[in-house]
Specification:
globular; 6 helices; alpha/beta
Length: about 200
């Protein structure tokens, strides 16, 4: 099931509102949460039945990538895989591209769908989003967390040489991504994969 969930940006650490309208459009559902502009929309896909697994993708990927990776779980679990804001089928957003905001978006998703006792599976940045979700809102409703390929820091520094790059290189990469994001991602994504992506993967 592919769904689009529409809600308004919650304030940092703020009160989360309940859905007021549910629209059915073919196989898509749109949930609305009122009165906290500006509104954004999140796409999420569900597969399977059973206890709920929330699958959070990494930087530059989508929920569909997580669904393919976790396909065997759908025989016993309900796997919910959102496209974080600005990713996949979730429309582009001018702001809010922080781990803290992604965590608030996921919290809204959990509350709007009425999900409890979920197991969070975070791939790379998806684990950072999970950790920030717990930091902001506590661990109530979260039965567990599976960390896929995420160390305690992405940055190399004294005592931790397993990061991707030092802080200074992070800033230059982020600056470059604002102007030539496709070129930056073309070099960045293969660097974080075990095997060279195929042309089909890159498209």
């Amino acid at each position: 099931t592919k769904a689009l969930m529409r809600f308004d940006d919650p304030p940092v650490g703020g009160v989360l509102l309940s859905p007021v309208n549910l629209y059915h459009t073919g196989s898509q559902q749109e949930y609305q949460v009122p009165s906290l502009p500006p509104a954004i929309t999140l796409s999420h896909t569900e597969r399977g039945r059973g206890p709920t697994v929330i699958a959070l993708h990494d930087l530059g990927r989508t929920g569909d990538v997580m669904l393919r990776a976790l396909k065997p779980l759908t025989k016993r679990f309900r796997v919910v895989a959102p496209d974080l804001r600005g990713h996949g089928e979730s429309p582009a957003s001018e702001g809010g591209h922080t781990v803290a905001q992604y965590a608030q978006d996921v919290k809204h998703l959990l509350d709007t769908l009425g999900l409890e006792d979920v197991v969070m599976v975070g791939w790379s940045m998806g684990s950072f989003v999970t950790w920030d979700l717990v930091r902001q809102f506590g661990s109530d409703g979260i039965a567990g967390h599976v960390n896929v390929s995420q160390g305690p820091s992405d940055l190399t520094k004294d005592g931790w040489e397993h990061g991707i790059f030092p802080l200074e290189e992070l800033f230059s990469t982020l600056t470059a991504a604002q102007g030539v994001s496709r070129a930056v991602m073309k070099h960045f994504i293969p660097a974080i994969l075990m095997h060279e992506p195929t042309q089909a993967d890159q498209e």
